[in-house]
Amino acid sequence: MGRGNPAGKLYSKYRNRRSRIMKKKKRSVELVIFEEDDADICKAYKLTLSRTCDDWESVRDMWKKTYKIRQEDVTALNNSDFFKAWNKFSHAKAYELMPRTS
Question: Residue 73 above 80 pLDDT?
Answer without folding.
Answer: yes
